[in-house]
Amino acid sequence: MHQETLSRALHRLESDHLVERTEDGYRLTQRGSEIIHVPVGGQPTKRSRVLETYLPSDVSSSDVISRLKYCWFSTLRWLGYSDNDNEALLAWVTDDGVTQVRARFRNNHLSIEINSETGENSNVAIKSAHELAARIIHEYQEVQNTRTSQATHGAQIS
Predict the structure, then answer these.
(1) Can you tell me the distance from the alpha carbon of 10 to that of 106, in angstroms, rounded to the nearest whole number?
(2) Are 29 and 14 members of one domain?
(3) Direct distance between the N- and C-terminal alpha carbons of the chain, in angstroms, rounded to an integer
(4) What are the CA-CA distances from residue 158 to residues 144, 145, 146, 147, 150 (Å)?
């Protein structure tokens, strides 16, 4: 979608009180959420968990999440995120718009889910989930390397 078209659509949704602008972007309002949760076609979207793992506890998930938010990479385009006291959920969609890939962070637990209109065994969906897992691992390593570098630099100054 062209940036100007997207901007106009967001302004229209905001004026209809369906979304609101926050410091992290836009999010659904209560009214918008009520409209979206009306089942379309009667069936909720089926999701398949592709990967479930624990993450190293020496790196904060929030540091990694902040590095992942708004990023587009490989075939994945940023879709959005939500968070509450228990978990953070980040979502991407493949550039063809067919497959959604989600990363769900709970403390030091990660699960990656897909939902695809072409079925749970779609190679594209599974490959996209693995691309996301590789990116998450990369970001964990980057945060860890940054902290190690800062600790070493701090020790040299002392």
Answers:
(1) 30
(2) yes
(3) 52
(4) 21, 20, 18, 16, 12
What confidence score (pLDDT) does residue 32 get? Answer: 76
Which of 102, 98, 140, 138 shows the shortest CA–CA distance to 119?
98
Measure CA 5 to chain center. Answer: 23
Q: What is the pLDDT of residues 71-127, one digit of tens each?
A: 998 889 988 888 888 899 999 988 888 889 999 999 889 999 998 665 555 788 889
Question: What is the 8-class DSSP label of residue 31?
Answer: H
Secondary structure (3-state) at 146: helix
Q: What is the CATH number of the domain that holds 142?
A: 3.30.310
For 121, the token pair is 């065994």
Asked if 4 and 75 sit in the same domain, the reply is no
Q: How far apart are CA 143 and CA 150, in angstroms?
A: 11
Q: Quote helix, strand, coil % in the chain, to nearest 5.
A: 40, 30, 30
Contacts of 3 (CB under 8 A, 6+ apart): none
Structure token pair of residue 33: 């959420």
